[in-house]
Structure formats: C-alpha cells, structure tokens
Amino acid sequence: MKIAFIGGGNMASALIGGLIKQGTPAGYLFAVDPNAETRERLEKTFRIVTAEEPSRKLADYDAIVLAVKPQMLKEAAESLRPFIVERQVVISVAAGIRSSDIMRWLGSHQRIVRAMPNTPALVGLGVTGLLASPTVNHDGRMLAAQVLEAVGEVVWCTNEGEIDSITALSGSGPAYVFYFIEALQTAAQNLGFPAEEARRLAIGTFTGAAQLAAHSDEPLSVLRERVTSKGGTTAAAIASFMESGIAESIVRGTVAARNRAFEMGEEFGQG
C-alpha cells in the first residue's frame, strides 16, 4: 500500500515510523508539509520523499492521511481537490470534524474514514477509533485499519457519536492518566521522596497495575478489592477517594470531553 500524509507532525511521524517498522518500504510513503524543518526531519529520519504543497503526485497513492489540527483541516482538504481521485481512501485524524464536512471540503469525495488515535501511538501502544463513511468498501476499511494498526489497536465505530465518545475516552484519556500519575508523584514528594524517585515510583506503580489488568480477565473491581484489606492502608486511601467523589469526577470530565468533541465539529466544520 502507498500512503501520503498531509501534515508531518507528531502523529504523522508516529504512523510513518510504525508503517516502516511493519515493513512498508519508505518509497511507498510521502508527506506534504509547508514547514521546511519538518520536511527535513521526515526525510532524514525516515528516508521518505516530501513536498511543500500538494500536487498531481498524490494520485499515485492508495490512501491520504489528513494529519493536521482541526482548525487547519478545511484548508488542507480544499487544497487536495484538484489532485484526489475516486479510488483513494482519505483518513482524517482531526478530532470532532464530521465526515460530511470533510466530504464537502474535498469536493464531494465519498471515501472517508475518521480516525481518533491517541498519544501512546507515539510508542506503538495507541488505541484508535475508526469510522468509515458508507461508501468505503471492505478493502478500504482494511486499508485504513492497516495504517492505524501500525501504532496500536483499532476499534470500529458505527456512527459519529461513537467516535466522539472514543475521542473523550481514549483520545483524551492519556491526559487523565498523566493527571493521576502527577498527583501520585506529588504525594510521594510530600512523603519525602526526591522528585526523580517520586516520578519513577509513580510511573512504575501505574505501569505495573495497568499490565496486571491487561493480563487478567477479572473485573477491575476484583483486582482493586484484592489489594484492599479491610481496615488497611489501601482501604484508608480508597475511602478518602470515594469521599472526595473522584470516580464521579472522572465520569463527569469524560462526558465534558465528549460534549466538547461535538462542539468542535460544529465550530470547525462550518464553511
């Protein structure tokens, strides 16, 4: 498969690196970015061909990945109109922007896949939600999945609302995790540990617990309760968390993120 990227930032770099690691020849990949330093970095790091702006060369590729920020997507998509061909699958990684808006900006191109990866994709451990427009056939879906599986797992959605929810959960979720690890590091420092050691303890504890959960079929509540002896230290901490309503706050925050994803579609999908 031959893949072109519009935008050469972190997510494009992660996808390019993942594809090459999986065996895609560098000559099958191409990137367009107006920034000379970005192009130079991509050329040196991955040995791929780059260009400053779109051209007829794009017609040679099976898929085009729109790897730009939501507020830049309209301009990027419209710049592709003279060069895109019907057989191509266009994959957008911009949060919130509806498939119908992308189709309109592309000049009624129908084969659209929305993708919502997250930042662990940068280390090959991403989780990506995918949503295909009805005109994307089986081969197109497989192609989109293959691109995003280069950086982790994929989950298919059935409607725009579902991918907005995945945006709130796994797209924004790493920030929630970092927020908790930050708090755990602060707690360790307050208990007298130096900052670097506190960071190592906090990250190591979270990584170990996440791996244990990933390797277990038991409910998370069972894993938690197994650590929580009645009247013990863990029970004291969990009781404090529950009294503060931390679980409820996480649920409310996730809903707020989902609502914001919808608002971004309305805000940046105009025009």
TrEMBL record:
Sequence positions that bind NADP(+): 6-11, 67-70
Enzyme Commission designation: 1.5.1.2
Domain of life of the organism encoding this protein: Bacteria
Organism: Pararobbsia alpina
Annotated GO CC locations: cytoplasm
Example GO biological process: L-proline biosynthetic process
Catalytic reactions of this protein: L-proline + NAD(+) = (S)-1-pyrroline-5-carboxylate + NADH + 2 H(+); L-proline + NADP(+) = (S)-1-pyrroline-5-carboxylate + NADPH + 2 H(+)
UniProt xrefs under Pfam families: F420_oxidored, P5CR_dimer
Domain (Pyrroline-5-carboxylate reductase catalytic N-terminal): residue spans on this chain: 2-96
Compartmental location: Cytoplasm
Record family assignment: Belongs to the pyrroline-5-carboxylate reductase family.
GO terms for MF: pyrroline-5-carboxylate reductase activity
SUPFAM superfamilies per UniProt: 6-phosphogluconate dehydrogenase C-terminal domain-like (SSF48179), NAD(P)-binding Rossmann-fold domains (SSF51735)
Signal peptide location: none
Protein purpose: Catalyzes the reduction of 1-pyrroline-5-carboxylate (PCA) to L-proline.
Pathway noted in the entry: Amino-acid biosynthesis; L-proline biosynthesis; L-proline from L-glutamate 5-semialdehyde: step 1/1
All copies of domain Pyrroline-5-carboxylate reductase dimerisation, residue ranges: 160-264
Keywords assigned by UniProt, alphabetized: Amino-acid biosynthesis, Cytoplasm, NADP, Oxidoreductase, Proline biosynthesis
InterPro entries, sorted: 6-PGluconate_DH-like_C_sf, NAD(P)-bd_dom_sf, P5C_Rdtase_cat_N, P5CR_dimer, Pyrroline-COOH_reductase
Protein name: Pyrroline-5-carboxylate reductase
